[in-house]
Design a protein that fits this description.
The protein is an all-alpha fold. It has four helices and no strands. The longest helix is centred in the middle third of the chain and has 30 residues.
């Protein structure tokens, strides 16, 4: 899914420029292909879900991806028809849906909660203090 994020950022830069319509369309098509592939994968959080709830969790995930693919198809139509304002609005909707989907389906990644900051220390050890520069006084 990181490929989708990269393409999404690139699309944000070109979607409102009619001269870059072909590039924007290619980015949308690439995102749709990646989302279709992602539908076949299990999200990272699957391993944390109880076996009794796993089938429903995966069904919900696939339904979310189906919605994403449908949004990409709407986005492609908006870009293709030159409706840049509609395309930009769809990008905002997709971004909001992404946040919700990631909260629901992604386990915390290796960079700590929310993917920001250093990873937590192993085995509950205290974090090392940052190195200090200069002389003490």
């Amino acid at each position: 899914m990181s490929g989708i994020s990269k393409d999404f950022r690139a699309l944000r830069k070109v979607v409102s420029d009619p001269a870059k319509k072909d590039a924007a369309l290619q980015l949308v098509k690439d995102m749709e292909v990646r989302a279709t592939k992602a539908k076949g994968f299990d999200p990272a959080k699957t391993k944390d879900i109880a076996a009794a709830d796993r089938d429903q969790f995966l069904a919900d995930y696939r339904k979310q991806i189906d919605g994403l693919i449908a949004d990409f198809q709407k986005l492609e139509a908006a870009v293709d028809s030159g409706k840049t304002a509609d395309a930009s609005a769809l990008l905002d909707t997709i971004q909001a849906d992404k946040r919700e989907g990631h909260k629901k389906f992604n386990a915390e990644d290796d960079n700590g909660p929310g993917g920001k900051g250093p990873p937590p220390p192993p085995n509950g050890q205290a974090s090392p203090s940052p190195a200090q520069s200069g002389t003490s006084g």
